Amino acid sequence: GVLRAAAFIVLSLQWFNPFMWLAHYFILRDIETAADEDTLSYFGYDDRAKYAQEILNMKKGKNQRERNVSF
């Protein structure tokens, strides 16, 4: 929430700086990774495998939707 909003505000102010775009990408990636790690800390071993498979399925579905887009 707050960190993501702050990153967006900083990027909005420095939109012309390519390093800020790169930093923004890495900040968002780190936020997602931290959220996944926090979620996994509540699961047992079997549930972790299911969670990981669900993330892979979501990624696969995203790739499939991107291929279906045609103009």
Shape call: elongated
Pairing-aware structural class of the strands and helices?
mainly alpha
> DSSP strand (E) fraction?
under 5%
Distance between termini? 35 Å
Average residue pLDDT: 85
Write the element-wise H/E pattern from the N-terminal end onward: HHH
User: Cα-atom Rg, whole angstroms?
Assistant: 16 Å
Assign a percent range to the helix content: over 70%
Total helical segments: 3
The number of E-state strands comes to 0
Largest sheet: none
Poorly predicted residue ranges: none
Describe the 3D structure.
- It is a single chain.
- The chain is an all-alpha fold and 71 residues long.
- The chain is 83% helix and 0% strand.
- The chain has 3 helices and no strands.
- α1 packs antiparallel against α2.
- The longest helix is centred in the C-terminal third of the chain and has 24 residues.
- The mean pLDDT is 85.
List the helices and strands and how they pair.
Blueprint: H1 2-13, H2 18-40, H3 45-68
Helix pairs in contact: 1-2
Provide tags for this entry.
mainly alpha; 3 helices; 0% strand
Describe the structure concisely.
With 71 residues, the chain is mainly alpha-helical. The protein has helices at residues 2-13, 18-40, 45-68.
